[in-house]
Amino acid sequence: MTGTLLWLLALAALAFVAALALRRMGRLAGGTHELQRLQADVVAINQRLGETVEPLVRLLDDVRRGARDPMEVGAEVDAARAALRALSREVRTLKPPAALADRVQQLVWEVDRAVRAADMAGHGVSQVGRKRHDSGAEALTALKRGTLGLRHAREAVSRIMMSVARLTPAEVHAMPVPAAGPHRGDSAAPPVEEDLLVGVEEPPSS
């Protein structure tokens, strides 16, 4: 009787250990799919941001150098601004693993910064195009700050994408879950003026 009881206890212990192992494997498998989905989404967002921001920055640089007429580029600037706003809405739908919530919040913040920078640059283009001599300096400042704000946001999103892309499921599983509370990305991006672009090299004038 005692021997049978010991066998039953041993089998129960083995079943418990097996259940724990299966549960852990299930969590890892689920985490793998969740991470892979997030990585694919972040790569796509980075690509779409680049496809919008990089041509826009070239266009704005042309306007600043006088190579493009600001009166003729309004539709292109507006289309880029609309694309960035759509991307901002899409980023907010991402569902990351809990441990990566902060990185997605940073992504939201940077895409929002691109939106605000594009709005500022668009304002500068419209003012330059209207040839308002009394606000010429202000218009050029808005154009410059908006353009450089777009560059900063583009570079930051690329860095976030690379940091997420190289993570493994085991690394994410071992990461602590961020404490609940306000994150950088929970609030609107600060004014682009805060970049102030110290040490950023100007593009060549020709």
- The fraction of residues in strands falls at under 5%
> How much helical structure, as a percent, in the residues?
over 70%
Oligomer: single chain
Q: Return the structural class.
A: mainly alpha
Total strand count, please? 0
Shape: rod-shaped
Q: N-to-C SSE series?
A: HHHHH
Separate helix tally: 5
Q: Explain this structure to me?
A:
The chain is mainly alpha-helical. The chain contains 5 helices and no strands. α1 runs antiparallel to α2 (74-91), α1 (2-65) runs parallel beside α3 and α3 (101-129) runs antiparallel to α4. The longest helix is centred in the first third of the chain and has 64 residues, at 2-65. It is rod-shaped. The termini are far apart.
What's the quick description here?
With 206 residues, the protein is mainly alpha-helical. Helix content is 71%, strand content 0%. The chain has helices spanning 2-65, 74-91, 101-129, 136-165, 169-174.
Any key phrases for this structure?
disordered C terminus, mainly alpha, 206 residues, 5 helices
Which secondary structure elements does this structure contain, and how are they paired or packed?
Elements: H1 2-65, H2 74-91, H3 101-129, H4 136-165, H5 169-174
